[in-house]
Amino acid sequence: MNPNSQNPQDPGHHGNGGQHAGNGHTPLDGTGTAVTGTGTSQDQRTAAGEDAQTLTTRQGHPLSNNQNIRTLGNRGPATLENYAFIEKISHFDRERIPERVVHARGAGAHGVFEAYGKVGDEPIEKYTRAKLFNTPGKQTPVFVRFSTVGHGGHSPETLRDPRGFAVKFYTEDGNWDLVGNNLKVFFIRDAMKFPDLIHSQKPDPVTNRQSGERIFDFICNTPEAMHMVSFLFSPWGIPANYRQMQGSGVNTYKWVNAQGEAVLVKYHWEPLQGIKNLTAAEAEAIQAKNFNHATQDLYEAIERGDYPQWELLVQIMSDDEHPELDFDPLDDTKLWPQDQFPWLPVGKMTLNRNPENYFAEVEQSAFGTGVLVDGLDFSDDKMLQGRTFSYSDTQRYRVGTNYLQLPINAPKKHVATNQRDGQMAYHVDTAPGQNNHINYEPSSLNGLKEAPRSAPDHMPQYTGRVMRQTIDRQNNFKQAGERYRLHEDWERNDLISNMVGALSDANKVIQDKMIELCSNCDPDWGNRLADGLKAAASNKQAKGGNQHNESKQKQAVAQAEAQAHEATPY
């Protein structure tokens, strides 16, 4: 982002996600069962209560209500996290017959998640009926994609940038995607601002160059971003590799138990290899030798049998507004204090197999925050609500309308839908014995039918006006200041150095606003930034003239010409 910084194998889970096609071979499903071109002999494993003609989503989630969207009361308005509806209608929108915008640079691996059967010391069924968690030792296949957020597909892995940490669980009830980052907070709290945030980090639309001025122009007018700044411009902004970094769901979700009762939950991946970060100078030295170092590190560790592992921990909070806190628990620019909401272990993930083909598995892997199984649910987190539409819609545009038929994305269980056609349809989601003439529901002519209800829906109650307003408890500076003070001396030094480097050529109004915001977080932070910017300006003035008064980027441009070796035409 910063332009001035730099276990056991799953024998049935094949390298391309469980199915092979082409080369004259019959495609296989995740268990080795033959799959015909029409899909009528697909893997027909079913979850409890399902049969072969149970209607599902493309993610393999049993669909128990195909008549109504999710609304505030039965008259509306509709909520944005209507995942089953969005999947259905957006596929319909594309029934007639590009690189990721964010998270373009990535690496991935297959593995397994093993449940502890408890949350901390308590039975997990007290909080969630999600089956993947409920039995000690239960194993669920996973695919994980690590990434950098803002830069292109072949950018160096030493650049300052949040790292994506996305996990696809192929559960018995269909897919669950836990889509997050290495850092546990984010820049913004409302999805309306996401395109603006990313535009500020992307290249200038005229010069096609990134700049610290653009990034901090957005940040200095977005005070909620200061907590993220306290991490991103410190060594935490450049993880040493993918194996030794944390992961986080960032957003607040819900767990729902068998009675339909819900709690708020946050997810944390803790690497059992430990955590390591790099300073800007260290990252630049590595980049000079290898700009693919993190991808190489992950691949070679798995090849030699040094399987990386992460423990999954959760924080749990009752599902209410928590007026006793000085922040809103749904605000993804905030951390939940561990002393009040302890980290509780629920399972362990082991990555034990590399992809057989990067494009088929890593590049075409597609994740969405709305991909939840029974027992997991959405909170009212405004960023989560916006991401739930955006992520899966991006996949339909980028990979194609039928992206969920690709082996890496397809659930490893029964799928039967009324979705048809669209670009690159691989097979038809029909069930054995289904009347193939019927691609709608309800029907009396042997079509698909709704899944039986196994537990009550979670039905939160709301009272309030529909509006467009910022949340009440913003508290933009407290946790950012706490993080600044928690940094070790070398981390604070690197934070100041990186910010000075990015801001030294920025307009003075941006510099002044950033000094003010940093001072609001901690006076020492603001004073040190102001001193650093003064020293940088004095240094430029002392060297005099435009010839010496250049940024690092301009110096590099001049250096390339001055130090280059002349050659004779041929």
Automatic annotation (TrEMBL):
Q: Which residues form a coiled coil?
A: none
Q: Which GO terms describe its biological process?
A: hydrogen peroxide catabolic process; response to hydrogen peroxide
Swiss-Prot/TrEMBL keywords: Heme, Hydrogen peroxide, Iron, Metal-binding, Oxidoreductase, Peroxidase
> Which Gene3D superfamilies is this protein grouped with?
Catalase core domain (2.40.180.10)
Give the catalysed reaction(s), semicolon-separated.
Answer: 2 H2O2 = O2 + 2 H2O
Q: Which residues form the active site?
A: 103, 181
List the CDD domains: catalase_clade_1 (cd08154)
Q: Name one GO cellular component term.
A: cytoplasm
Region (Disordered) spans which residues?
1-75, 537-570
Xref: SUPFAM superfamilies = Heme-dependent catalase-like (SSF56634)
Top-level division of the source organism's lineage: Bacteria
Compositional bias annotation for Low complexity: 22-40, 554-570
Q: Where is the signal peptide?
A: none
Q: Which cofactor does it need?
A: heme
Q: Where is the composition biased (Polar residues)?
A: 53-71, 538-548
Kindly list the positions annotated as binding heme.
Answer: 391
- Return the EC number: 1.11.1.6
Q: What GO MF terms are annotated? A: catalase activity; heme binding; metal ion binding
Q: Please give the family membership noted in the entry.
A: Belongs to the catalase family.
By its UniProt entry, which PANTHER family does this protein fall under? CATALASE, CATALASE-2
What does this chain do?
A: Decomposes hydrogen peroxide into water and oxygen; serves to protect cells from the toxic effects of hydrogen peroxide.
Protein name, UniProt field? Catalase
